[in-house]
Design a protein that fits this description.
Strands 14-13-10-11-12-15-22-20 form an eight-stranded antiparallel beta sheet, with helices on both faces. It has 17 helices and 39 strands. It folds into five domains: 4-103, Rossmann fold, CATH 3.40.50; 132-201, ATP-grasp fold, A domain (Dna Ligase, domain 1); 207-462, ATP-grasp fold, B domain (D-amino Acid Aminotransferase, Chain A, domain 1); 471-583, Glycoprotein, Type 4 Pilin (2-Layer Sandwich); 599-667, Beta Barrel (OB fold (Dihydrolipoamide Acetyltransferase, E2P)). Strand 28 and strand 29 (557-566) form a beta hairpin. The radius of gyration is 27 Å and the shape is globular. The longest helix has 17 residues, at 249-265. It has 672 residues and is of the alpha+beta class.
Amino acid sequence: MFKKMLIANRGEIACRVASTARRMGIATVAVYSDADVNARHVEMCDEAYRLGPAAVAESYLNGAALIAAARHSQAEAIHPGYGFLSENEAFAQAVEDAGLTFIGPPAAAIAAMGNKSAAKALMAQASVPLVPGYHGEDQASGHLAAEAARIGYPVLIKASSGGGGKGMRIVTEAGQFEAALTSCKREAKASFGNDHVLIERYLQKPRHIEIQVFADRHGGCIYLFERDCSVQRRHQKVLEEAPAPGMDEKRRKAMGEAAVAAARAVNYVGAGTVEFIANQDGSFFFMEMNTRLQVEHPVTELVTGFDLVQWQLSIASGARLPVSQDQLALNGHAIEARIYAENPMRDFLPATGNLAVLRMPEAIEFDLGSPAQPAGASGFRIDSGVREKDVITPFYDPMIAKLIVWGKDRNEALLRMSAALGRCHIVGVATNVAFLKRLVANTDFASGNLDTGLIERWRDTLLPKASAPGELTLALAVARRLAIEAEKPSPDPWQALGAWCLNAPALRVFEFESDETVYAVKLSFAAGAITLATGGTPLPFAWHVANDDVTVTLGDKTHHAKVFIDGASLYVEDAVSTYRLLEVDRLLHAGEPELEGGRLSAPMPGKVVAVLARVGEAVVRGAPLVVMEAMKMEHTIAAPENGTISEVLYAVGDQVAEGAELVRFALAAGAP
């Protein structure tokens, strides 16, 4: 076994690997960029080395710097985690050439599976079923369009390299093909350095089912059953579970054996995932093989009882697989939810900011290494690479945490997931927690009626238009603010913030802004009675505050919620919704001009990758003007109305901050 290893990654996977290595008595070396100087994974490891600036190309993708850090620290092995260089055959080979152990498959296996087109040809030879498509080398746009017509629409354009939903576009008709191909190739080039694509028939209502495989250096290869990853947005997984709902033993065995055949075809070693697209009738087709550990590996760990990271380290050091296929069994059901800093209401745009509050349900360490779960376990597991007060930056994947639950069956796991999400409180950055609550409660998901189009099919329910804060919500915010004032009493009546008033009934007006609307709340104090009004009849008002727990009674209604404060913002979070209320300070903003029309701003921090707008050009509503890239995903900024471009403020390659003005245009006559 290794005495010391370097973890060539960051975030929750680096923390997870460090934790397992510590239990195994292996010293760990962290690496970090300038954006991660104080990151949790740096703190968890025994040593840490700076790689370079925040940009991934100058830090976590710098293979030479990683190997140099390993040599300098006298590490014997490098664990690549997932993402970054984990599936880069050149890096794997460079690690081996440096006399170090790459904790993953051989470079040749990564190369064989890294190119999806070549991999599918290899799978055909291994009799693994494939989706009809084109995987050839001719990348001329005309030829690809002809192949799409031959396959039949709808088709899926997909980057031959990489994964994670990047470089993928669904095309439903021939007229959309050219624009989709251009965008897909550009995103693939930015993400993977290779704009080669393949085209496949896009299956209707498919499921995404993947098989966890493990192989050792002695010819052993097994599958640890399946995970259902059908619930996705923008081709990226949101919820994952094991086992797959409705999976029978015959189909499970067929898919498992196909996955093992795929792994054996490339002489695989270590942890890998073979991904299949499956029809509702039970037929399935090979999509790709991820030659690394997957983000969703914890659900497999909880239903098998084995620590897959421990297996990785043991097998890389030369050990055999600890069990045979016939010794494996499923136990219970596990579900994982990915908690992201993103705004679901804005098409899941990544979000950045300070984690002013990060409260997660109390979790336990599962007894991995034994198929039986500990008696009385809470069933919650949290994998996270951040802490409260950390900053979510625009440089890396915006995942905050993975919330994993285990139950004796799927119903119990669903109940635990719902309860756990209700105990997730995150303030300071937009998140998908409220969206996840609705998703877990969705009738199709709850019943196991899964397919990759579930979120889009239920979009109106899962992504409802934000409602205005009601009177009770505003009352909760007022109560929280009053409690803060009470904590800082002043002996000077002129400095006090309370309700005292000279020779007259006291009246206080609070103003809160939500979604560009200002709400006034009037609080009246007279003859020992307190009333509250937001425009209607004043109602008797009482409140109780204990830290962030706030209870108010307004008239004959009582309401309870969590209310968190971050600067001038109050976050009112009940069982259904979260409202961000910005306390308005009229004096602070006096004299500021209103924003003029004709502005288009960046919805998130990122890089400009295409400028389609031209000064003097007339555009129609919805016309694409600027394409930005953030976290390796493209986002198109379109014209909100008909008008004429008057100024373009950024060029391709420029980095822009969230809210930066990108384009100015004059509204056409008659435009609102």
